[in-house]
Amino acid sequence: MPGSNKSIWINSKSILLFINSTTRWDTIKKCVKTNLRGSSQTRWSAKHVAVKALLNNLPEVVESLEEFKQTSHAPEAKYEAGSLLNAIKNFKFKLNLTILANILREINRVNTEIQKKDIILSRSVSLMDGLMKTLQKMRENSIEYWIEEAKEVAK
Fold first, then answer.
1. Are 10 and 19 in contact (CB under 8 A)?
2. Is residue 153 predicted with pLDDT exceeding 50?
3. Contact present, 24 and 17 (Cβ < 8 Å)
C-alpha cells in the first residue's frame, strides 16, 4: 500500500475486497486519498487515526464502493461492496462511528500525554481522572445530542 500517515478503519475482510484486485485498488486510490488499514487491536492511537479517517472520508468510500458494485465482474466482490455500502449508508452506522470517534479522540489525547518521557505520576493520575469525567459527561449526553452530531456526518 502507498505510504501515508492517514488510514481508513475497515475490517480485515473488507480490506481484502480492495487489495485483492489492482483494478479495485486503483479505484479506491482515485476516490480516497488515504490508505486502507485495519484498526489495531492494541494501540488506541491507531484506532483513533483509523476511525477519524473513515469518518472524514465517508463520501469517498461510498463513491468507491458504488463504483465497485457497478463495475465488478466478481459476484463475491459485488456482494461485499453492496454489504459495505448498506452498512455505511445506514444512519446507525454513522451514529456509532460519530460516538466512537469522540470517545477515541479523548482517549488518544490522554494516552499521548501519559506516554511523554517527562510525565510525572500525579499528572498521569490527574489526566486519567479528567478522562473518566469527560467520558462520564459523554455518557450523560442525550441520544438527541449524538443524533445531531451524526446528522452533520450524514450530510
1. no
2. yes
3. yes
